[in-house]
Amino acid sequence: MLLDARMRLVEPACAWLMHVALVRGRTRSPQTWRTYAEALYDWWQTLEANCWAWDEVGPGELAAYRDQMLRPRGDSGRPLARSTINGRLRTIGRFYRWSV
């Protein structure tokens, strides 16, 4: 389940996660589901923080999101690993391909 800042269900993201877990069938690993959910959670936080509508973003917003992940984060003061960044972008791409 993914909730927005006002504790409402983020229906498109939840529907895709259910599709991945139950319908798609090829992805049976709970760890993969968790990875996908974490990527969407981080993306939705970015959408809300920037007042972007999930269904109105384009390449510029994705580039800004990527650049944000390249900046130092959290307690470690280091950016995310490039493999993590690429994985999150691939997951977001899968979500958007499914949503259209």
In short:
The protein has helices at about 10-25, 30-50, 60-70, 80-100.
Show the helix and strand layout.
Elements lengths: L10 H13 L6 H20 L9 H11 L12 H18 L1
Helix pairs in contact: 1-2, 2-4
Regions with little confidence, pLDDT below 50 for 5+ residues: none
User: What does the overall shape look like?
Assistant: globular
* N-to-C order of helices and strands: HHHH
Question: Could you tell me the radius of gyration in angstroms?
Answer: 14 Å
Mean pLDDT: 90
How is the main sheet built? none
Helix content: 55-70%
β content, as a range?
under 5%
Structural class: mainly alpha
The number of strands is 0
Distance between the termini: 21 Å
Number of helices: 4
Q: Give the total of domains.
A: 1
Give an account of the 3D structure.
There is one protein chain. By secondary structure, the protein is mainly α. It has one domain. The chain has 4 helices and no strands. The chain has helices at residues 11-23, 30-49, 59-69, 82-99. The protein starts with 10 loop residues before the first helix and ends with a helix.
